[in-house]
Amino acid sequence: MSKIIVDCAISLDGYFAGEQRGPGNPMGGVSGRLHAWMMKEKAFWRRIKMEGGTEDGKDGELINEVFDRTGAYIMGKRMFEEGEVSWAEDLYEADVYVLTHEKRDPWIQKGSTRFFFINDGIESALEKARASANGKDIRIQGGAITIQEFLNAGLIDELYLHITPIFIGKGIRLFEGMDPDKYEIQVLQVDSTELTTHMHYRLIRK
Amino acid sequence: MSKIIVDCAISLDGYFAGEQRGPGNPMGGVSGRLHAWMMKEKAFWRRIKMEGGTEDGKDGELINEVFDRTGAYIMGKRMFEEGEVSWAEDLYEADVYVLTHEKRDPWIQKGSTRFFFINDGIESALEKARASANGKDIRIQGGAITIQEFLNAGLIDELYLHITPIFIGKGIRLFEGMDPDKYEIQVLQVDSTELTTHMHYRLIRK
């Protein structure tokens, strides 16, 4: 059965994005600092269908691990709007469900990426994503508020968290208003590399 | 030369303490959950001069490491007030400088613990702590706001952070209003145990 997973980077002070994010300023301008550990990895650039990277390291293995287990994606509208203007064609190679109030026809790309726009909530998106994933896992891609919604609904099974040793100071925190009684959380694995620390947690709903 | 160090536990969502902390409710009631990894260690109970603990594990080694390298402490007034009512006699076995607006004579305990009350700011406390530490390190003990003040003044050399896999949801975060440009931060060591993840960072002032 599909697991519901989250995989994202935060700064040491807990920020997922900076201030004033939007399509013209994705992630509030902090992505390069937060994701330096990804940017140097060939695996990352292969996955986003661009040229780049100089290394095939542990960081890249983890990038591949999460891409490989994922069969469908769910994301919030603002994250989609940030990406729509810049993502390569067929980036996700899977069905992507976008949570939005906007009515919009599916966006079917060349290849196997299809965006569906869901107007009736996270449970509905999850049900459709489950069908798309066909036994693979479902990744709640972001942004932070969408991840918080799934976390506080008790729906997340695993969390990959990359803690990048920088301070951001202001912006959007990943963990805001967490329900303290929803989960028992277990550390599955921790791997530290030069540019980040990879934490892999299992969340067991109480 | 003495290093200035911080050693504390935070929840996965970044909280150092819960809500409504005070002498009658130390750390807002979250200490047991945040510090479960300490409570089981004999080293911890030996250090606080009480009976307790069942294990001599990795968590305990780290507790000893930090106690052993520390030659003087600095803390905020509210942390002191929480501890004054409950700490064992001669807990610190060192000089402790309490940042406060209150004028108060030194509190000299039996043994080697002496509390001094400093009214003229963190640099003054640091200068006196350096003399007390006599080449050992100076630990900024807490609370969060005192640690933030030292961090943003660019004065911290090393940070031991224990990330406990729980959500607290509300209270006092360790990292609030961090200056994003003050330090280059390097990961020195990461050790994961069942109940927490120990992160050890070097902070290099830019």
From TrEMBL, chains A, B:
Signal peptide: none annotated. GO terms for biological process: riboflavin biosynthetic process. Pfam families: RibD_C. Residues 3-196 form the Bacterial bifunctional deaminase-reductase C-terminal domain. InterPro entries: DHFR-like_dom_sf, RibDG_C, Riboflavin_Biosynth_HTPR. GO terms for molecular function: 5-amino-6-(5-phosphoribosylamino)uracil reductase activity. It comes from the Bacteria. PANTHER family: BIFUNCTIONAL DEAMINASE-REDUCTASE DOMAIN PROTEIN (PTHR38011:SF12), DIHYDROFOLATE REDUCTASE FAMILY PROTEIN (AFU_ORTHOLOGUE AFUA_8G06820) (PTHR38011). This is Dihydrofolate reductase. The lineage of its organism: Bacteria, Pseudomonadati, Bacteroidota, Sphingobacteriia, Sphingobacteriales.
